[in-house]
Design brief:
Strand content: under 5%
Shape: globular
């Protein structure tokens, strides 16, 4: 499920705010917040709590979330034959 949501974020099918929230609330929480999903959980926290006075645009946080999703997918591809945690 994390792969699917990450793919949806990465290809623009799912907006980063909604997608990272799904990763955070529905997937990572149920798996005990695995280290592999931490970048997307971090993005979810930032997007959820964003305020205009932070000095970073919401668009920049969206781009960071897209990059985090792509990174997760790249790590997953590299680890296909290895030890990627089950359930991700």
């Amino acid at each position: 499920m994390a792969d699917w949501v990450s793919g949806q974020i990465a290809d623009g099918t799912l907006d980063p705010t909604s997608g990272t929230w799904l990763i955070w609330a529905d997937i990572a929480e149920g798996l005990g917040y695995p280290e592999e999903l931490e970048p997307l959980v971090h993005c979810a926290h930032n997007l959820d709590g964003w305020e205009e006075n932070w000095g970073v645009s919401l668009e920049e946080l969206d781009r960071e979330a897209v990059e985090a999703a792509k990174h997760i997918l790249n790590k997953r591809s590299a680890a296909e034959a290895g030890s990627w945690p089950s359930g991700l």
